[in-house]
Amino acid sequence: MKVAVRTLCEFAAREGDLDFRYTPAPSAEEGIAGHQVIQSKRGYGYKSEYSLTGKCLGLELYGRADVYNPHSGLLEEIKTHRGDLSRIRPHQRALHRAQLRAYGALLCRQENRKTLKLALVYFDMGKNRETPVTETARADELWQELETLCERYRLWAEQEAHHREQRDIRLAGLRFPFAQFRPRQRQLAETVYKNTVKGGSLLLEAPTGLGKTLGTLFPALMAMPAAAHDKLAYLTCRNTARQLAVDAVERLRAAQDAPQIWPLRTLELVAKADACEHPDKACHGDSCPLAKGFFDRLPDARAEAAQAGTTLTQDVLATIAVGHNICPYFLAQEMARWCDLVIGDVNRMFDQAALLHGLTRQNNWKTGVLIDEAHNLVDRGRGMYSVQLDQQRLLKVKKTAPKA
Ligand code: SF4
């Protein structure tokens, strides 16, 4: 049972409200750039991206500490932000600190240290300014805290390991839902299967009516155990194509023996505008009632969603969310961590702050990716990586701008 330290902390150390008020946060790219600025400032003797591993209560933990100086015994965790630091809420700071201390616990074990200096470094990208929050901690107290987090996560991890086993057994013996393939659909499916197992890239052109959705989804799912894939992302450029994929999964499920036992967690990710229950409010506890206490009620909602046994569509998630009085959109974001197949827009993998890309990196997942109508990626990519400057707004701001 392997788990990234960050995932462990996000699972076991988050509480309170949803809150994005300390945004505008830097983009993923800016965040990486910010880390590099600080790491380069530290100079000789410092190690950046310091690899840490360890075992705690049967869990194999791994992660990378941002900066470590073995000579002075200082471990640093960098958090980039923009704007007033006081806007970062106490429970968000608590999560950052929990992560730093978890790294500290692993480091003390790994390097046989009795004490460690810890620094949570908030780096303001706009002002190029560091604000460190430092403390010194004992190895035994750090380890005790780590055990508490692992204790909270362990039951879930055991359930997840069991789920993975059941999922892989079912997928390896997956049955095609029709008696026969359509002409050339078998060839398509075989090509996708072989390619998935060997981990290659494939560009396919196939005519309408050949049955591409099932002809690619079926073999990609079936190959997941052999390819040791953790996740499969089915990405589309249109909502109607997303619905086709959801229907294809349902058709697959119905064609299997004992379809009521279906250990393939499938999630349909929809846009925030479509899932939000309070479009007139902001995503924090002082504005939206579904953000208030979100993380306190999330564990029960997450457990229910994980056991749902059906595709987590927008409607299914909305029903679960309402039962726990939490936001359905952010429940879906959470479930992206725990589902095997995620069906969503291409921006979920390719945007600058793409959820699936971020989770794949964070958790070292092996993720298979199927992209429907991939020729649209050029245009969609332009949209994702371009900025629009409004002339009216620019002229208005120019009047009040200080001298360069
Ligand atoms: S319901 Fe809407 S406003 Fe409220 S937290 Fe969810 S997305 Fe944000």
Topology:
Blueprint: E1 2-4, H1 5-12, H2 28-42, E2 47-56, E3 59-69, E4 74-81, H3 90-111, E5 115-124, E6 129-138, H4 139-172, H5 185-198, H6 212-222, H7 224-227, E7 231-236, H8 239-255, E8 266-268, H9 272-275, H10 294-306, H11 314-324, H12 328-335, E9 341-345, H13 347-350, H14 355-363, E10 367-371, H15 377-384, H16 391-400
The structure holds iron/sulfur cluster.
Number of domains: 2
Total helix count? 16
Helix-strand string: EHHEEEHEEHHHHEHEHHHHEHHEHH
Largest sheet: 6 strands, mixed
Number of strand segments = 10
Over all CA atoms, what is the radius of gyration? 23 Å
From the helix content, strand content and strand pairing, which structural class follows? alpha/beta
Could you say what the CATH topology of the largest domain is called? Answer: Lambda Exonuclease, Chain A
Low-confidence stretches: none
Determine the oligomeric state from the structure.
Answer: single chain
The CATH level-2 architecture of the largest domain is identified as Alpha-Beta Complex
Instruction: Give the mean pLDDT.
Output: 92
Return the CATH class of the largest domain.
Alpha Beta
Principal-axis shape equals: globular
